[in-house]
Every structure is written in structure tokens, then in C-alpha cells.
Write a structure and sequence with these properties.
Blueprint: H1 2-25, H2 30-53, H3 62-79, H4 85-100, H5 104-107, H6 112-132, E1 142-143, E2 148-149, E3 152-153, H7 159-183, H8 185-195, H9 197-202, H10 207-233, E4 235-236, H11 243-256, H12 262-281, H13 286-300
Antiparallel strand pairs: 1-4, 2-3
Helix pairs in contact: 1-7, 2-3, 2-7, 2-10, 2-11, 2-12, 3-4, 3-6, 3-10, 4-10, 7-10, 11-12, 12-13
């Protein structure tokens, strides 16, 4: 009963936070709503990484899922004429899942640096293909038109705000589902895998299956985040799959820690703010400022931002 109460409180808190942000966004300057939109979209990608981190593996190729979701949404909009933002978001996530499915059984056999490097290799192969194939726009990528929502065209004045609200709502739903999954039997098995794989196998669980499922679920989150990000930007390009992009998603996951779902989006927002202001004031060395910031966090909060309010992992 207490667990059900905790879940109910988490869901209510998440919905309330989303509602407050949606209302507040109407009064925010456009640059801030755009910053939060991108933070929420990128946070979805990092949320998938946190799911895998709970099982003891860290993927360095989530940029691939981000790019697959983004390109899927952009191509569907430009080639097939499908412009509904909700449909494109769902399609981006599902197509990323389909791309990840064949690799999940293979990757589930590896741990540590081998898992990280294999996922990075997949991401860089994707980057190479996107750079070379003209059908994907080559090195410049391509633009996509403004999406629609439930059959309605988005007016120029409020299109950014509508995408802001949509991204927040999708991120909230995915975050709440993720919290429920983390607290479920499968989520607890994932934690057990990180601590003692042999014992999980003895108790009848499948370590490879747990990691494979988490990899596919992470792909969905990454693809959905990619679709939302591309629709907000209005442009897609191969650098979405480059290793530096994947590194930023890992940066956010480490910054957040694995205990808290909400911390992932807080960390994503922190990254966007630090990067935005650092690039404004230190245009040639903003990466240095970002690195120093991460070192400070690791020094004083080794378990991530989430450890400030979550010691049991229920937020």
C-alpha cells in the first residue's frame, strides 16, 4: 500500500510540475522556452542511458538513436507528408527501437568498455552513412517544415510555445512510466544485475534479457527525443550521431546520477544553461567551462544531482 501511495504521489507531483511549467511558459521569453524544450528533448535521450546505467553498462552511442529518431521524423514530414507532431514523435521512437532490436542480443553479451565502444562504433557508422548518402542530405542535412498538431496548423506566433508544451507533456509521460518501470520487478532485477550477475542467474533471472530490453527501451526514448528536438530546431544533420553528441548525453546521465528520474531533466537543463552562457561569454573555451563544472559536481556530488533529494531512488 505504501508503494502504491508513493507511486501516486510521484505521478501527481510530475503532472503538477508539468502543468506549472506549461502555464509558466506562456509568460516566459522565447529563448527560455526554447532552452527548456531542448533540455526536455535531450533529457529523454539521457533517461535511456540512466536506465542502462542502472544495469551496470554505459552506452556511448545514444547519439545514433537521437539521429535515427530525428531523421525518421524529418523524412516522414518531407517525403511522406506526415506532419502531425505526436505521430512523428511516436514514429521516431518506434523506428529507433526497430533499428536497435537486431543489435540488442549482441550488445547484451558485453560489459564495461566493450559495451561502450561497440555502441560508439554503431553511432559513428551511422554518422558516416548520414554524411555520405545524399538521400539524407549529406553533410549539411536538411530542413523540415513546421509540424501540425491534431490536424491544426501551428501559427507563427505560438508554434514555439506549442512545441514547448508538447515536449514537456511527452517528457513527463515517459518519465513517469520510467519511474514505474524502475520500481517494478524488472527494474529491481536491473539493479541486481549491476550488483551481482551470477546471483541473478542463479535465482532464475536472465541478465542478457534485462540488458537487451533496457537497450531497446533506451532506443525508444532516444528516438522520441530526437524527433522532438528536430521538430523544434527545424533542421536535422549528421552531427546528431557524432561521438561528441553521444558524450553530452552521457555527461547529463552522470551529472544526474541513476537514483532519480527527475534529476535527468534537471541535469539536462543545467547543461543547456551552462553551455548557452559559456558559449556567450567564453566562445572559444565553453567546453572547458563545461568540463570544470562536471569535475566540481563529481567532487562534491559523486552520486549525481539526484542524490540531493533522492536516497532511495523514488523521485
Amino acid at each position: 500500500m505504501s508503494m502504491q501511495t508513493g507511486v501516486s504521489k510521484t505521478i501527481l507531483l510530475g503532472l503538477a510540475t508539468c502543468a506549472v511549467l506549461c502555464v509558466g511558459g506562456w509568460f516566459m521569453p522565447k529563448w527560455l522556452t526554447f532552452l527548456i524544450t531542448m533540455a526536455a528533448a535531450n533529457g529523454l535521450v539521457s533517461l535511456g542511458i540512466v536506465g542502462l546505467m542502472r544495469g551496470g553498462v554505459v552506452p556511448f552511442g545514444q547519439g545514433m538513436m537521437f539521429a535515427v529518431g530525428g531523421y525518421a521524423a524529418a523524412l516522414m514530414a518531407n517525403k511522406l507528408g506526415i506532419t502531425d507532431a505526436l505521430l512523428l514523435t511516436l514514429a521516431g521512437g518506434l523506428i529507433a527501437m526497430l533499428v536497435a532490436l537486431p543489435f540488442a542480443p549482441l550488445l547484451s553479451r558485453y560489459r564495461g568498455i566493450f559495451f561502450a565502444m561497440l555502441t560508439l562504433a554503431l553511432s559513428m557508422v551511422t554518422y558516416g552513412l548520414l554524411m555520405k548518402l545524399e538521400w539524407f542530405g549529406g553533410s549539411d542535412g536538411f530542413n523540415l517544415g513546421r509540424p501540425t498538431l491534431l490536424g491544426m496548423k501551428l501559427p507563427d506566433a505560438t508554434s514555439g510555445y506549442v512545441m514547448y508544451v508538447l515536449t514537456l507533456c511527452v517528457a513527463t509521460v515517459v518519465a513517469l512510466i520510467t519511474r514505474v518501470v524502475f520500481d517494478s520487478t524488472r527494474g529491481l532485477i536491473t539493479l541486481a544485475v549491476r550488483d551481482n550477475e551470477l546471483r541473478v542467474e542463479y535465482l532464475g533471472g536472465s541478465v542478457r534479457q534485462a540488458i537487451a530490453i533496457n537497450f531497446v527501451l533506451a532506443a525508444f526514448a532516444g528516438g522520441a527525443g530526437g524527433a522532438l528536438g528536430v521538430m523544434s530546431l527545424g533542421h536535422v544533420e549528421p552531427t546528431f550521431s557524432f561521438w561528441t553528441t553521444s558524450g553530452e548525453f552521457v555527461f547529463v546521465a552522470i551529472l544526474a546520477g541513476w537514483q532519480s528520474v527527475s534529476a535527468v531533466f534537471v541535469a539536462s537543463m543545467v547543461l543547456e544553461v551552462v553551455r548557452s552562457f559559456s558559449s556567450s561569454y567564453f566562445p572559444n573555451s565553453w567546453q572547458l567551462a563545461l568540463g570544470l563544472f562536471l569535475l566540481v559536481i563529481i567532487r562534491f556530488l559523486p552520486n549525481g544531482i539526484g542524490s540531493l533529494w533522492s536516497h532511495k531512488g523514488h523521485s
